[in-house]
Automatic annotation (TrEMBL):
Keywords carried by this UniProt record: Membrane, Transmembrane, Transmembrane helix
Chain ranges passing through the membrane: 6-28, 40-63, 69-92, 104-128
Organism: Paenibacillus agilis
Superkingdom per UniProt: Bacteria
Designated name of the protein: DUF8051 domain-containing protein
Length: 130
């Protein structure tokens, strides 16, 4: 069972890494977000930073098989999914710069990874409790 928890932890780590490479001004994200108001811009960034930090905590909790690790990871997976879907749908964040094809492909892959993470830990959770 410990090997499965290590795999789950690695999947969370992969998801947070995939999110981290999408930072504005980074290798893939090149859109202009200067139109976002300060509170909205910083609020969204604070949310993403908190999601990243919580992901690293979840990695550890999975490694030690903490009783709430699966539930926390499921929530994190849903939040990753929501972040990517609202961006792919053009809902938020809005930018006058069009999303590049590489960014769109990355976000589609990342969305898929969030779904996979959710399904994986859900199955693991059923194996632990059942």
């Amino acid at each position: 069972m410990q090997d499965i928890m290590i795999m789950a932890s690695l999947l969370v780590f992969l998801n947070v890494t995939l999110l981290a490479i999408l930072v504005p001004g980074g290798p893939i994200e090149n859109r202009d977000f200067s139109g976002l108001k300060g509170g909205v811009f910083w609020g969204f960034n604070l949310f993403l930073i908190t999601l990243g930090i919580t992901s690293f905590i979840a990695c550890y909790l999975l490694l030690i098989s903490h009783p709430y690790a699966i539930f926390i990871t499921q929530i994190i997976a849903v939040l990753y999914f929501v972040v990517y879907i609202i961006d792919l749908a053009g809902i938020f964040p809005k930018s006058p710069t069009k999303m590049s094809k590489s960014l769109m492909l990355s976000e589609i892959i990342n969305t898929s990874m969030a779904v996979f993470l959710f399904l994986f830990v859900t199955v693991v959770g059923h194996g632990v409790s059942g």
